[in-house]
Amino acid sequence: MSGAGTKLEVQDSSQRKAKLQVLLVEDNLADAELMLRELRRDGFDIATTVVQTRAEFRRRIKEEFPDIILADYNLGDWRGVEALEILHGEALDIPVIMVTGALGDVTAVECIKQGAMDYVLKDGLARLPEAIRRALREKHERSLRHQAEQDLARKVDELARSNADLEQFAYVASHDLQEPLRMVVAYTQLLSERYKGKLDENADKFLGYASEGALRMQVLIHDLLAFSRVGREDAVSGSVDCNSVMEEVLQSLASTVQESSAVVTHGALPDVWADRTQVAQVLQNLIQNAIKFRSKEALVVSVQAEKADQNWLFSVRDNGIGIAPEYAENIFVVFQRLHTRDEYPGNGMGLAICKKIVERYGGKIWVESQAGSGSTFKFTLPAHGPEERVVEQA
Ligand SMILES: Nc1ncnc2c1ncn2[C@@H]1O[C@H](COP(=O)(O)OP(=O)(O)OP(=O)(O)O)[C@@H](O)[C@H]1O
Ligand SMILES: [Mg+2]
Questions:
Q1: Residue pair 25/57 in contact by the 8 Å Cβ criterion
Q2: Could you give the CA distance from residue 192 to residue 200 in angstroms, rounded to a whole number?
Q3: How far apart are CA 98 and CA 281, in angstroms?
Q4: CA distances from 94 to 26, 125, 276 (A)
Q5: Minimal-distance CA residue to ligand 1 atom 19
Q6: Which phi and psi angles does 127 have, rounded to 5°?
Q7: Would the pTM of this model clear 0.70, i.e. be above it?
Q8: What angle is formed at CA 277 by the lines to CA 273 and CA 278, rounded to 5 degrees?
Q9: Residues, CB within 5 angstroms of ligand 2 (ion)
Q10: Residue 259 Cα, ligand 2 centroid: separation in angstroms?
Q11: Tens digit of pLDDT for each residue in 292-341?
């Protein structure tokens, strides 16, 4: 038995590297010879080890990590199919081809179920080379796929971690900066009030700049904190009736709408799966923008929604100043604005918050616009909660 192992084994380990390592689980040496002859005839450059017992099989697979295993089904006191179980137990991904005498359908199916890549009958060995090639190809593809999945999982992990870090940083920075800034604002204001006109003209001017700057910084930090809270606060996801949200938003914007003589209309709005306050925040920011960036024309804002697969697609259309297409993505970035604060007040935070909210629910937000011809902001929100979504997909 062990004689068989040494007889067919190629000993030169440097040679073995380049060769295809074949582990034969076979108790009939003549059969083994036939298989090898078939493979060599087909041009395979192989190094072979023959094993016969379970113990030897266990040892060899761990020592040699063969490229492929060719196993007979009937091996005296054990079965080739056990080889599959052993490989499984050792978590080794080595393709196995059963090379057997007549094999009943049931047994053949059992072998494939256990993980054999193929089975070849001993009286049809001409098929063996192609079966090996296919098994090796599939193994290669499997390992590429596995590698790609691992890379992806690692990247997703890294991204989630770096997002969480960034979020934590923005939160801590904006939260902790508030307190010292309050001191700066309070004391620059105190200085202005107490010493205005008592020092020289420049001093008054400088104090003015200082308190103005501090106040501005306070607003920026407040906005940054609001932005970083979108992901942190305990938003409650549930079914939200957008008609009633819309009414609330219009109520809170009533005076702005009136002052600008805007006409804000909306169609029947759906229920979406999100947090009520955050949906209100999105609609309010978009309508506020429409009002702020109006043109000389009488302003008309229209809010509509239509079903798009599992989502609702909202559009907020205005006939305002519009946005040149090259800025269509930029405007959703924190603090990005297209105008000076003297032209239009604001910090460039509204759309960044909208984007963060919408993406939190798996939605998208974008703008369709041309400079000078109004804008349509579109965003999607899920129609249902995750469980119902699965039901609908099924
Ligand atoms: N409806 C609109 N029409 C034209 N331009 C718009 C419209 N909405 C947004 N923009 C452009 O996108 C920029 C970013 O909008 P965003 O709401 O983020 O900031 P903001 O309104 O300037 O400031 P904030 O929202 O912080 O008060 C705006 O400064 C403006 O240039
Ligand atoms: Mg805004």
A1: yes
A2: 12
A3: 64
A4: 17, 21, 54
A5: 348
A6: -80, -15
A7: no
A8: 65
A9: 289, 350
A10: 17
A11: 999 999 999 999 999 998 999 999 999 999 999 999 999 999 888 898 88
